[in-house]
């Protein structure tokens, strides 16, 4: 009788797990199909109260609403390079080198895990700051990648110290939540909420996931740590696979579209937008499913 009860419980748990994964994949595919019905113009809209966009004779010009002067536009460099350039390969190696152990090994080597967590947080935070503060001239992909990865190295070394243990655990929990939120937002063309007037909703979703991750790691530390490792690791591995398959047109483009609200990059953001290939959506959905499976 007891054996039968345990077997039924196990089957119910497995059914729930794989039903959730299947539903997630189905929703992601339907989202892309529905998004394909939206006009390109709608996908590429950008709300930015700091600029005025004028589209005359097919030429997009950006002006400051305060001074009325034209804002020079530059290439939105994010350090990802192009195709399989040196910097692109560096990011692929970085994604698998950091993401693989987090996903497969988890919290067993806690010093290395917390070092990776703090380093990753430092890298992504600094990357977002650079992308949003560079002027129209910008800096080279090599320089940006070097600076960001150097900050990762400093964060990693800091995370190895005993005094960083508590902070590292909290950072890992937050990273795990944010990684889930970002992937959910990137599942659809033009982001989860593509309406330019509701762009902030995407960040509300991401922020809620990050907050949930921090609460989980404080409330139930073991589950929170497992979630942080699985989510952050699967996110980085997904980024690595997507860079190999889609280069800069998949997750890389989505991350730039999500984070980059630099007034010097408005034309690039408006004209290129974000419309992920089906392979990117599949990679995102599978990585979310793997997060759930590895966490449990």
From TrEMBL:
GO terms under cellular component: membrane
Presence of the UniProt keyword Methyltransferase in the record: no
Domain of life of the organism encoding this protein: Eukaryota
Subcellular location: Membrane
InterPro entries xrefs: TM7S3/TM198-like_dom (IPR025256)
Residue spans crossing the bilayer: 88-105, 112-130, 142-161, 168-186, 198-218, 225-245, 274-293
Keyword Transmembrane: yes
Short name of any one Pfam family annotated for the protein: TM7S3_TM198
Residue ranges constituting the TM7S3/TM198-like domain according to the UniProt record: 93-291
UniProt keywords, alphabetically: Membrane, Transmembrane, Transmembrane helix
Membrane disposition: Multi-pass membrane protein
Protein name: Unplaced genomic scaffold PAXINscaffold_14, whole genome shotgun sequence
């Amino acid at each position: 009788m007891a054996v039968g009860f345990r077997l039924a419980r196990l089957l119910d748990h497995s059914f729930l797990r794989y039903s959730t994964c299947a539903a997630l994949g189905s929703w992601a595919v339907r989202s892309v199909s529905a998004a394909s019905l939206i006009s390109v113009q709608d996908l590429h809209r950008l709300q930015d109260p700091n600029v005025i966009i004028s589209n005359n004779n097919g030429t997009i010009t950006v002006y400051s609403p305060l001074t009325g002067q034209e804002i020079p536009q530059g290439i939105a460099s994010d350090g990802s390079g192009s195709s399989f350039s040196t910097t692109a390969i560096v990011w692929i190696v970085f994604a698998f080198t950091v993401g693989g152990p987090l996903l497969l090994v988890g919290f067993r080597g806690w010093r290395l895990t917390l070092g990776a967590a703090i380093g990753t947080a430092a890298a992504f935070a600094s990357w977002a700051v650079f992308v949003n503060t560079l002027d129209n001239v910008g800096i080279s992909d090599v320089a940006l990648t070097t600076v960001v990865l150097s900050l990762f190295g400093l964060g990693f070394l800091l995370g190895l110290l005993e005094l960083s243990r508590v902070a590292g655990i909290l950072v890992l929990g937050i990273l795990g939540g944010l990684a889930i939120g970002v992937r959910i937002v990137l599942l659809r063309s033009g982001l989860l909420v593509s309406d330019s007037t509701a762009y902030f909703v995407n960040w509300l979703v991401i922020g809620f996931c990050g907050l949930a991750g921090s609460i989980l790691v404080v409330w139930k530390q073991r589950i929170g740590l497992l979630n942080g490792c699985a989510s952050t690791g699967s996110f980085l591995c997904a980024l690595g696979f997507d860079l190999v398959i889609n280069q800069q047109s998949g997750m890389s483009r989505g991350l730039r579209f999500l984070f980059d609200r630099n007034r010097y990059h408005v034309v690039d953001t408006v004209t290129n937008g974000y419309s992920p290939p089906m392979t990117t959506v599949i990679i995102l959905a599978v990585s979310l499913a793997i997060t759930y499976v590895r966490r449990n």
